[in-house]
Design goal:
Elements lengths: L6 E3 L4 E3 L2 E3 L4 E2 L4 H10 L2 E3 L3 H13 L6 H5 L35
Antiparallel strand pairs: 1-4, 1-5, 2-3
Length: about 110
Protein backbone atom coordinates (compact mmCIF):
# COMPACT_ATOMS: atom_id res chain seq x y z
CA UNK A 1 0.00 0.00 0.00
CA UNK A 2 1.23 3.50 -0.78
CA UNK A 3 2.48 5.68 2.03
CA UNK A 4 0.68 8.78 3.21
CA UNK A 5 0.86 11.55 0.61
CA UNK A 6 1.79 9.27 -2.23
CA UNK A 7 -1.37 9.75 -4.29
CA UNK A 8 -2.01 11.90 -7.34
CA UNK A 9 -5.35 13.30 -8.46
CA UNK A 10 -5.91 11.79 -11.90
CA UNK A 11 -9.56 12.54 -12.69
CA UNK A 12 -11.50 15.66 -11.77
CA UNK A 13 -10.71 17.88 -8.82
CA UNK A 14 -10.94 17.41 -5.07
CA UNK A 15 -11.90 20.22 -2.74
CA UNK A 16 -11.23 20.12 0.98
CA UNK A 17 -12.22 23.33 2.70
CA UNK A 18 -10.48 26.18 0.89
CA UNK A 19 -7.94 23.95 -0.84
CA UNK A 20 -8.55 22.51 -4.31
CA UNK A 21 -6.49 19.66 -5.72
CA UNK A 22 -6.29 19.68 -9.51
CA UNK A 23 -5.34 16.74 -11.74
CA UNK A 24 -1.64 16.04 -11.30
CA UNK A 25 -1.62 17.37 -7.71
CA UNK A 26 -0.30 15.37 -4.77
CA UNK A 27 -3.22 14.49 -2.49
CA UNK A 28 -3.42 12.84 0.90
CA UNK A 29 -6.91 11.62 1.80
CA UNK A 30 -7.81 12.43 5.42
CA UNK A 31 -9.26 8.96 6.08
CA UNK A 32 -8.63 5.46 4.80
CA UNK A 33 -12.32 5.14 3.91
CA UNK A 34 -12.14 8.20 1.64
CA UNK A 35 -8.85 6.97 0.19
CA UNK A 36 -10.42 3.63 -0.70
CA UNK A 37 -13.48 5.31 -2.24
CA UNK A 38 -11.37 7.67 -4.35
CA UNK A 39 -9.08 4.85 -5.49
CA UNK A 40 -12.06 2.69 -6.44
CA UNK A 41 -13.70 5.57 -8.32
CA UNK A 42 -10.47 6.28 -10.23
CA UNK A 43 -10.14 9.83 -8.88
CA UNK A 44 -6.69 9.26 -7.34
CA UNK A 45 -3.88 6.81 -8.02
CA UNK A 46 -0.63 5.90 -6.28
CA UNK A 47 2.28 8.11 -7.38
CA UNK A 48 4.12 5.27 -9.12
CA UNK A 49 1.05 4.24 -11.14
CA UNK A 50 1.53 4.98 -14.88
CA UNK A 51 -1.81 6.83 -14.97
CA UNK A 52 -0.62 9.09 -12.13
CA UNK A 53 2.65 9.77 -13.97
CA UNK A 54 0.68 10.76 -17.08
CA UNK A 55 -1.46 13.13 -14.97
CA UNK A 56 1.69 14.74 -13.55
CA UNK A 57 3.14 15.26 -17.04
CA UNK A 58 -0.14 16.74 -18.27
CA UNK A 59 -0.26 19.11 -15.29
CA UNK A 60 3.31 20.24 -15.98
CA UNK A 61 2.33 20.98 -19.57
CA UNK A 62 -0.51 23.26 -18.41
CA UNK A 63 1.66 25.48 -16.19
CA UNK A 64 3.31 27.63 -18.89
CA UNK A 65 -0.10 28.56 -20.34
CA UNK A 66 -1.00 30.49 -17.20
CA UNK A 67 0.05 34.14 -17.51
CA UNK A 68 2.28 35.40 -14.76
CA UNK A 69 1.35 38.42 -12.66
CA UNK A 70 3.90 40.79 -14.28
CA UNK A 71 2.39 40.03 -17.72
CA UNK A 72 -1.05 41.00 -16.44
CA UNK A 73 0.21 44.29 -15.05
CA UNK A 74 2.41 45.34 -17.97
CA UNK A 75 0.84 48.17 -20.02
CA UNK A 76 0.45 47.72 -23.77
CA UNK A 77 3.61 48.24 -25.84
CA UNK A 78 2.26 51.30 -27.65
CA UNK A 79 -0.65 53.59 -26.99
CA UNK A 80 -1.89 55.14 -30.23
CA UNK A 81 -3.82 57.85 -28.38
CA UNK A 82 -0.95 58.98 -26.16
CA UNK A 83 -0.11 62.68 -26.42
CA UNK A 84 -3.48 63.77 -27.81
CA UNK A 85 -2.99 62.45 -31.33
CA UNK A 86 -5.51 60.35 -33.13
CA UNK A 87 -9.21 60.75 -33.75
CA UNK A 88 -10.33 63.53 -31.45
CA UNK A 89 -13.14 64.96 -33.54
CA UNK A 90 -13.91 66.39 -36.94
CA UNK A 91 -15.69 63.25 -38.10
CA UNK A 92 -19.18 64.62 -37.48
CA UNK A 93 -19.86 62.07 -34.74
CA UNK A 94 -20.46 64.87 -32.25
CA UNK A 95 -23.55 66.15 -34.10
CA UNK A 96 -21.65 68.83 -36.03
CA UNK A 97 -22.29 69.51 -39.70
CA UNK A 98 -23.18 66.02 -40.90
CA UNK A 99 -26.79 64.92 -41.25
CA UNK A 100 -27.47 62.19 -38.67
CA UNK A 101 -30.81 61.22 -40.21
CA UNK A 102 -29.44 59.99 -43.49
CA UNK A 103 -32.42 61.31 -45.50
CA UNK A 104 -30.67 64.42 -46.81
CA UNK A 105 -33.08 66.76 -45.06
CA UNK A 106 -31.81 69.05 -42.30
CA UNK A 107 -33.83 70.99 -39.79
CA UNK A 108 -37.34 70.04 -38.60
Amino acid sequence: MAKKGEFIVIDGCIQEGRETFLPGSVYTPPTTKLRDELLEAGVIAPVKDPVAQAAIRAAEGRKPQTPSAPDLLTPPASDDNAGGTGDEGGDGADGGSEDAGGDGVTGD
